[in-house]
Amino acid sequence: MNIRISLLLAITWIAIETQAQTLQSASHSTKGYIDSDGRIQNASHSTTGYITKDGLVQNASHSTIGYIRSDGTIQNASHSTVGFVREDGTVQNASHSTIGYITKDGTVQNSSHSTIGYAKNIPKTWAAVCYFFFAE
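Given the sequence above, the corresponding structure tokens read:
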């Protein structure tokens, strides 16, 4: 009996771990999804891009469109810096001007602190790529 319960819990955990997280607008409507492997989908579940664990940002055709560096620097395909995501969630453009914030709970805000979306349980750098840098 304990083995069955453990197996059921393990299967449940795997299902939750691989489930896509929802990207939402300020009004909580679904903008898209991003799964733990970095596949980005629009609200219709069509794949629009990918973010790999090592920070490669690709479009739906797997062409490289950018990079996320380990220090939070966001670069375009030519390796030019287009922005930064600071540890506190501040999002800056290449000129270091603040263009938004991503709070600890995943609320995405513009530079005036108005909520523009929600990216719960999504790494801040991934959320910044989706909302500020390589959004369609």
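The two ends are 50 Å apart (CA to CA). Try to locate this feature in the token string yourself.
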